[in-house]
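Q: Protein A?
A:
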Amino acid sequence: MTYDSPADNSKFTRKHDIAFPILTDEQSEHIRRFGLLNETIDPATRYFGVPHPGIFIISPAGKVVAKLAEENYRDRPTVAAVLEAVDQRLLND
């Protein structure tokens, strides 16, 4: 999910040959609800609304069962951390 426009997301997915949809949240409403809003960004800039990087693991029933998020936009959850979260999810079923 990004705060970019649908047109920008479309352009990005075509350029990078991404086969899955990227969700648009131009007003950062859902970004706020998920607790991902980067509040260090000046609200007067065009970058306000950007989320912290994050990954959600969602169960087949639609329940968020894990949230991996980083404070710094340059950091991303590691593949190992994501796999561990998925493994934990499978163990708890």
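Q: Protein B?
A:
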Amino acid sequence: MATTQKLEIVTPDGVAYSEDVEMVTFTGVEGDLGILPGHTPLVTQLQPGEMVVLRSGREELLAVGGGLVVVTGKLVAILTDMAIAADKIDEAKVEEARQRAEARLREKISDEEVASVSASLARSLAQLRVKRRRRS
């Protein structure tokens, strides 16, 4: 049985991550999932939050947005609107974006704007959780 699987994360900007990994953990629509090599094939929705990748015996943390996950047993393919490694997150900028989104939600805005601003807020919160977890 294989000890690694390919993890590929694609964002609108291109391939954000492509490595052989031992395990990947993320939050799907039905809760947290841990994917090991040989996992049963599955398709699920990715929720914004923290992704933990075990590669070469070390944990890597990423903040991810919403998206789609396809697991084949040898490959975990993720299509998402955001994937940022913890060490690339600028906490001050993300905190500012979070505050702007929360202020915007308190205003009278259309349903479409609420959805867009809520998605932005979810991405900001995911980045802050990852950055702050890495510090502790």
